[in-house]
Fold this protein.
Amino acid sequence: MAATGTGSAAWPGQLPAGGSTVSVIVATAIVVADMVGVGVFTSLGFQVRDIPSGFSILLLWGVGGIVALCGAFSYSELGAMFPRSSGEYNFLSRAYHPAFGFLAGWVSATVGFAAPVALAAMAFGEYGRSVLPGFPPLTLAIGVVWLVSIVQLTGVRHSGTFQLISTILKVVLIVAFLIAGFVVGTPQPVSFTPSISDFATITSAPFAIGLVFVMYSFSGWNAATYIIGEMRMPQQNLPRALLAGTLIVLVLYVALNAVFLHTTPIDKLSGQLDVAHVAGSYIFGDVGGRIVGAMICIGLVSSISAMMWIGPRVMMTMGEDIPALRVFARKSNSGAPVYAILFQLAVASLMLFTRSFEAVLDFIQFALLFCSFFTVLGVIKLRITQPDLPRPYRAWGYPITPAVFLLVTAFMMYYLLTERALQSFLGTLIMIAGLLIYALFRNRADLRSTTASSSRD
């Protein structure tokens, strides 16, 4: 890959030392913000129907966090080796072939981030209705996406400040909710200590299937890899951000589910989508719904901000490598990839207006898992094929931790293939489309190169 005007010869796309403005604290905030969305506030109601054990539920979320940490260890090794923004696009290009990297970048840059942004924005609108009953949810959803995008367009420094403040506020509100739940809430007859029956529960099919949805709630643990080129001392700070962010979310998730079970009867949670609202009514009474709604809304702002920051960096980096996409690599004086941000804003807004984001999310899950699987497998491949490559950070627990992540991810892909075959097939078609587009771009580049060579002759 050739160097560009914004990067060094060694790491195309990485900002020079004076332009790397993202601290490890802000990078950690991005990880936390991207992970903590609505999943943890909606999953428990379906889990307790088949897993009516406090210990097993908390263990389920603990296992999910451990698997996410295993992935973070591997991504940290790759990120320290190849400190360039764009996540899987960068890693798969380095570990396998640029075509594989383009496939991952194609999914992420087109719908991989825009669909979750639209979903989070629509959730913001629905929860915001309990706080501002006069506003239509779609209006609130469009408003928050555009507001966050304007912040992103002001540049990296302002984006970092906004991200840090909004994420700290999110964590503070969740901690306040946890304290209120344990102090004010009425304890329910639920035990968090293991019993003999828990062993059968942990080895059952519902526990394994529950882990699939828990892992969706933990998605985002790799968020900082998309902005490596904007980080200070990425070889040291990327592993710190991924591991610290994932550990913080692991603690918050286990504590939140403990509060839900501690304050609310299991039969009232079973089958409910909005378990946070139900628990809030038991903790705070009639105003509980508004309190929980406001807490989730504020938290979703930081999630949308994180995705509107990191998503356009994929298109930006692809634009640095591919002449046909070069417009997306252009940055403002403040370091914002303006056209890449506007592109993701347009796609997310279109999905909101057409309400297509839920369908898109269904059929990109397999593609996203596929790319994560081969990214972590790339750590093993490079250890075998290129053992002498400099590795500023080496994955802790190798090869066990990558193997754990690969096994769980393979199970999740198998589940999607068997339970959501059509959606997985559509996701595969998107990846194939990415390969065809890559071939088209490469052929055009080869043609230009041949024409230029002929004219010189």
Remarks:
- The radius of gyration is 22 Å.
